[in-house]
Structure formats: C-alpha cells, structure tokens
Design a protein that fits this description.
The protein is α+β, with helices and mostly antiparallel strands and about 400 residues long. It has 4 helices and 22 strands. The chain folds into 3 domains: about 100 residues, Beta Barrel (conserved putative lor/sdh protein from methanococcus maripaludis s2 fold), CATH 2.40.420.20; about 80 residues, Beta Barrel (Elongation Factor Tu (Ef-tu), domain 3), CATH 2.40.30; about 120 residues. The strands form 4 sheets. It has a 6-stranded mixed β-sheet with strand order 1-22-18-17-21-2, with no helix packed on it.
Length: about 400
C-alpha cells in the first residue's frame, strides 16, 4: 500500500507538470465550428444602422395662449389646410380684458368727439368776437379820419379829436390781441386733438392686439399638412407655449439614423447609405449631423437620392448600410462571433495540415457588414476559426476532429 500510494503521488506530480508546462489542448469537432479563409479583394468600409422615417419638414403646434380645451374640430392624423381650425380654448381673463379694452376705446372715441365739438364751438365764438372787433375797429377808424379832417378845418375841438384817436388806437390793439388769441386757440385745439387721436390710435391698436389674442384661442393649422401627435382632450387645461402636437408637410420624407459614438469622427455630410425596400435598393445621403451624444449614440438626418420608395410611411424603421469609405483592396476575414471573445486582438489559425488550430495575435481595422479588414497577423490563404470561442476558455491549441 505504501508503494502504491507513493507511485500514485509521483504520477500526479508528473501529469501536473506535463499539463502546466506545455500548451493546453482541447478536442473540437469541425462540424461544430466555422472555418473561414483569409482573402484579398475589394473592400468597402460600411456599418449597419437603423433609421426611422420622418417627414421632411415638421412644424410644432404650440398653444399661443393658455386656456381650457372646449372643443376639438379634428382628430389626430387628419390632413389639414392652412387656416383650418383644430381646437378651441377658453380663457375668461382674456375675454374680460377684451371687453374692458373695447369699453376704453369707446370712451376715448366719445371724449374725442366731445373735445372736437367743444373746439369747434370755441372757434365759432372766437370768430364771432373777432368779427365784432373788426366792426368796432372799422367804426373807430371812420370816426377818427372824419374828426381828423374836421379838426384840421377847425370844425371841432382838440378834445373830441383826441377822444376819437384814442378809441381808434384802442380798437387797433384789441384787433391784434384778438388775432393772437384766435391763432393760439386754434393751435392749442389742434395739439389737443392730435394728442387725443394718438391716444385713441394706441388704445385701438391695443384692442386689435387683444382681439388677436382672443382669436388665438382657436388653434388653427399654420400650413397644409397632416396633424400628428395631437395631445389635447376636452376639459384639459393648456398653458401658454405648451406643445399641442405637430404638423407634417406631406412633400417628402427623411430618415433619422442612430449611430454609435465610436464613428462620430468618421461621419460627414453627403456620405451615402443603401437599404432594400420591396425588393428594390434605394440610396440615402447624409444632410445633417447632430453631434450631441446621448446614451453612447448620436443622430444624423439622411434624405433620399432620386425617387422615394412607394408605400413608405412615417415611423417606419429601415435597416441601412452606411458607407464610411470608398471601395479599396484589402486583406479581409469574414465577420463572426469570435470577435465577442477576442475583441479582434487574436484568433485561432488552422495549421497547414488542418489537424490543429492555435492562437495568433492579429490587428483588425475597418469593417463592413460581412468582413473585417486585417492589418497584421494573417495572410491571404490562411484559414481561421470565426465561430464563437465561448466554450474554449483559456485553451491555447485546438485539436480538430472530423
């Protein structure tokens, strides 16, 4: 027993030394793996992305004035004409302010009319007074000239002549004063009426603005288009500026595409992508790039090159192949699940006799839908395992069995 135990310990030591000092091996059935050949040929750098079909132009519909939803004239999805009512809001404060503004305008208009009538009456009075002054001046002038002639002929005395002269000079001064008063009153009346007219115009403009605000309680379509995302129910209160929905212009579509932030430095306007719809291939071109990254992704807008697919709808998801470069010659390896375990840093290369496969370090570059570009570690004609390495663990060498 002692000899047998000692022999077993020695055997375990030898086996342990054998497996730890040499390469670890694993038998693998070739029917359960994928063996691919390294090739050199045309390569086009592209990536698969998903895009959502959106209208080419959308206009957001916001509440210009706040209020309570009283009536809906149409439902979500309706095709609208410019100016067509969508819904009606009520706002008691605005409607009360409109009544008060109308009353203020009416009062100002009445006051203007009263002031105009008073100014006209005052003008008539002043003109009558001026007429009386003119008449008195003419009479005083006549008496003065007559007495002057009689005084020169010694027909009257100096006292009577001086009295007529003083009366004439007095009426002459009174005439000048009356003319000044008439001119000043006319100027003052014009200034007062102009001020009242300006005040009335300002109040009238405020009234028109208030009427427009009340008119905005009826929400109307600003363009011809399709109403979408309408968020309003009877009895619901909406604040000023709150989003009510949007209108889509029915003159074309664009595609909003999500792209991994890893490619943000390689995306430029006018890059193209293709997708297949109803058995036909279509081309898209990048028109706008949104550089804001959210949850590791950014977005671009792509528009159709040439005709749009018939039957395409808003909200539809498209699978797009986005080209990142022109076609070039490159050494390539087919895409496979091996990348998830290796990160593209190494791969199992099949030996020339096809009986084993061993790890080799590699460096991958660009990628397409089906291929990776090989920069280092492999040559055309080499064969590699491209299926999953999930069950291989840290195995260094695979023994391939048929």
């Amino acid at each position: 027993m002692m000899i047998g135990g000692s022999a077993l310990i020695v055997l375990l030591i030898v086996l342990s030394f054998y497996f730890t000092s040499g390469k670890s091996r694993l038998n693998v059935n070739t029917e359960r793996i994928t063996i691919s050949e390294i090739k050199k040929g045309p390569f086009k750098d592209n990536i698969p992305v998903n895009g959502v079909v959106l209208p080419l132009t959308s206009i957001y519909l916001d509440a210009i004035e706040g209020g309570r939803v009283e009536e809906k004239f149409v439902e979500d999805g309706a095709v609208m004409k410019r100016g067509q009512p969508i819904l009606r809001l009520s706002n008691t404060d605005l409607e009360l302010n409109l009544v008060q503004q109308e009353t203020q305008v009416f009062n100002l208009l009445t006051q203007m009319q009263i002031s105009r009538n008073a100014a006209q009456q005052n003008t008539v009075t002043k003109l009558n007074q001026a007429t009386d002054v003119d008449n008195l001046l003419k009479e005083a002038e006549r008496v003065y000239k007559l007495n002057k002639t009689l005084y020169e002929q010694k027909a009257i005395g100096l006292q009577e002549f001086k009295e007529s002269e003083n009366n004439y000079l007095y009426q002459l001064q009174k005439k000048k004063l009356a003319d000044q008063i008439l001119t000043q009153d006319s100027t003052n009346a014009k200034i007062e009426l102009e001020q009242q007219r300006q005040s009335y115009d300002r109040t009238r403009n405020a009234l028109e603005l208030m009427r427009k605000k009340v008119g905005d309680l009826i929400v109307r379509s600003p363009i011809d288009g399709q109403l979408t995302s309408l968020d309003a129910e009877i009895g619901q209160s909406k604040n000023k500026g709150e989003r009510l929905g949007q209108l889509d212009v029915l003159d074309g579509f664009k595609v909003r595409v999500d792209i991994d932030e890893h490619y943000i430095s390689r995306i430029y306007p006018d890059q193209t992508g293709t997708f297949t719809f109803a058995g036909k291939e279509y081309t898209l071109k990048i028109k706008k790039i949104y550089t804001q990254v959210t949850a590791g992704r950014f977005q671009v807008d792509m528009e159709f090159e040439g005709e749009e697919p018939k039957g395409i709808r808003r909200g539809q998801t498209l699978q797009i192949v986005l080209s990142l470069s022109d076609e070039t010659e490159a050494i390539t390896v087919p895409r496979g699940a091996f990348f998830q375990q290796t990160g593209g840093n190494w791969i199992f290369k099949v030996s020339e006799n096809g009986k084993t496969a061993y790890r080799v370090p590699i460096q991958l570059g660009r990628q397409s839908i089906d291929l990776y570009e090989v920069l280092e570690g492999l040559n055309p004609g080499d064969k590699v395992i491209t299926s999953s390495y999930e069950n291989f663990g840290d195995i260094q060498e695979l023994v391939l069995k048929n």
